[in-house]
Amino acid sequence: MEFSTTLTSEPTTDERLAEILANPGFGVHFTDHMVTIEWTPDAGWHDARVTPYGPLTLDPATAVLHYAQETFEGMKAYRHGDGSVWTFRPEENAARMVRSSHRLALPVLEVEDFVRAVDALVAVDERWVPESGGEKSLYLRPFMFASEAFLGVRPSQHVTFMVIASPAGAYFKGGVKPVTLWLTEDYTRAGRGGMGAAKTGGNYASSLVAQQEASSHGCDQVVFLDAQEGRYIEELGGMNLYFVHDDGHIVTPATGTILEGITRASIIELAGKLGHPVEERRFSIDEWREGVTSGRITEIFACGTAAVVTPVGALRWDGGEVAAPASTDLTMRIRQALVDVQFGRAEDTFGWMHPVG
Hints:
The protein has helices at 14-22, 64-67, 90-103, 111-124, 201-216, 262-273, 285-294, 329-342; strands at 4-5, 33-40, 44-52, 70-72, 75-79, 85-88, 137-146, 159-168, 179-183, 221-225, 233-236, 240-245, 250-253, 278-281, 297-304, 308-317, 320-322, 353-355. It has 357 residues and is of the alpha+beta class. The protein has 2 domains: 4-170, D-amino Acid Aminotransferase, Chain A, domain 1, CATH 3.30.470; 179-342, D-amino Acid Aminotransferase, subunit A, domain 2 (D-amino Acid Aminotransferase, Chain A, domain 2), CATH 3.20.10. Strands 1, 2, 3, 4, 5, 6, 7, 8 and 18 form a 9-stranded mixed β-sheet that branches. Strands 9, 10, 11, 12, 13, 14, 15, 16 and 17 form a 9-stranded mixed β-sheet that branches. α3 (90-103) crosses α4. It starts with a strand and ends with a strand.
């Protein structure tokens, strides 16, 4: 796929960009350009282009606004010490979007074209990638949506794929801290045969009221249980969970109704290399409570693109609480090892990093 490029006539000034990169926050500022590719049944994917970043003009009947037919991805570009720019396992994000597209009845954008689209935007807006050192990065948001104007429940006959980018600061400004979790017993995130394994906005929308519930109880994140029995751990609102046991092995909930995180998969490989095999299986809330109380579970951590890895503290629910495990040692070792690979401070023995340009 070939991309045409139209550069903005009003690029962000060096002075303003320096101000933004000094304190980028997350998802607040956006780069000067964006990628767009169109799809129709007759033409397939076409009109791939890099253009100045700007608002979209949508008909009020645009299908995505009514039927939520859309998918997205989240990934990052990192500046290494030599000034080069790399992305982390972009082909895995592309492959997950393929799976999400199948579930949402959207056309498949081939893995190679997904990676080219991301590379095209990073190459044009390379100066937006923060300097090496610390944990600042350029967050990348590829997404696809039903852009046909019609009212009717059927797959859209016009689909738009886009990539936008936003510089991101370190998730933990004051250092990594354990997150306190709220166990919701009223809401579930996904059920068997649903869209839990697809990265689509509806999954996140359904988590918001439960997250409000968690916040009202002084907790950082919400834990969801399975929809069928209400016994088994699924995931957090946007992160996967791991339970470290006293014999060194780690358990993480099996996928199927939860999102197959790229960071999740990477940690499974990385932990195994560090001598801590990871078991993927159903894991009950009772096993969590009893394991922490008995000392069998020595650490709990969560992972996602934004936070990378974070230790888990106390778990609360209506009428009870289980304290945080005493240790975060392995959690922080895994976190540091992964971050060091991403930022080029350690050898990439897994072949995860993808050079841009």
